[in-house]
Specification:
By secondary structure, the chain is an alpha/beta fold. Helix content is about 40%, strand content about 15%. It has one domain: TIM Barrel (Alpha-Beta Barrel), CATH 3.20.20.
């Protein structure tokens, strides 16, 4: 397939200001990782300049090899026991009111890394009692025990992305399972009804309109409250190609549709990613449900 030419609305200005450099230096100094850097996120300059970042725990190497993701695939190292407190200190040093923590998928660990998530949440709570905590978790192979471990640590919101429509999973996410991911969101709502849930999709991978509508219906049925929709962008030539660039007005139409369907908080646009404007999405959700 011929590579599509990137449209003008996907050209983003890059500004390396002092705040960006300050955040980058602090992250390196503490030996931490961010999904912003590892996944080659197009919003990194904007977010770092706003002194915000999404921390990537459990190392830089993922045990899966999704064809859309730039995170390295390989044999991971043993989790760093100091990482939870280092992340908590970084949250304090950045003055974050809301933090998003994600991880690589660790199928090599008995609990998938759930206990490490819990320790990280605990340290953030200890050092930053007024900071709201969002975690973007892997599927933990559907383990109820692992999900409970994360829930017991008390995150304010749990995100698990479906990423794409089930028809495309074998090509885009060969190591994942659509129903397993959907059931994980159902389990969260069942085990802890007061914990907010969130999910997201990338568009432009070859999905059809009816595919997307069915996924959104499935998410509502699973009790999902917050939705993100963004344009898939091919991170390197080694990754799956973009099938279509979604027009900006189409993202607005999807947002209206999702809100009418029952989602409480929706972010939809070409550059939207899981943790993009996460604090604002949570505020909207809390105002609606309080």
């Amino acid at each position: 397939m011929e590579t599509l030419r990137r449209p003008s609305w996907l050209n983003k200005k890059i500004t390396l200001d002092d705040r960006y450099l300050e955040v980058q230096k602090m992250i390196k100094r503490k030996g931490l990782h961010t999904i912003c850097e590892e996944a080659l996120c197009p919003n990194i300059y904007e977010c770092f300049s706003k002194k915000t970042a999404t921390y990537l725990i459990l190392g830089r190497y993922c045990t899966r090899n999704c064809r859309f993701c730039a995170v390295r695939h390989g044999k991971p190292k043993v989790p760093d026991p100091q990482e939870p407190i280092l992340v908590a200190e970084a949250v304090r040093d950045m003055g974050l009111e809301h933090v998003v923590i994600t991880s690589v998928t660790r199928d090599d660990l008995p609990d998938g890394g759930a206990s490490h998530f819990a320790k990280t949440i605990g340290k953030i709570r200890e050092i930053n009692p007024n900071t709201t905590v969002e975690v973007l978790i892997p599927d933990f192979r559907g383990s109820t025990e692992s999900i409970s471990t994360v829930l017991d640590a008390g995150p304010d919101i749990i995100n698990h992305n479906l990423e794409t429509v089930p028809r495309l999973y074998p090509r885009v996410r060969p190591g994942a399972d659509y129903n397993r991911s959907l059931n994980l969101l159902r389990q969260i709502r069942s085990l802890s009804p007061t914990t907010h849930t969130k999910s997201g999709l990338m568009l432009g991978l070859g999905e059809r309109e009816d595919d997307v509508k069915k996924v959104l219906e499935d998410l509502i049925d699973a009790g999902c409250e917050v939705l993100t929709l963004g344009q898939y962008l091919q991170p390197t030539k080694m990754h799956i190609k973009v099938e279509r660039y979604i027009l900006p007005y189409e993202f607005e139409e999807w947002k209206r549709y999702a809100l009418e369907l029952g989602f409480i908080s929706v972010s939809s646009g070409p550059f939207v990613r899981s943790s993009y404007n996460a604090k604002e999405l949570l505020k909207t959700l809390i105002l609606h449900t309080s």
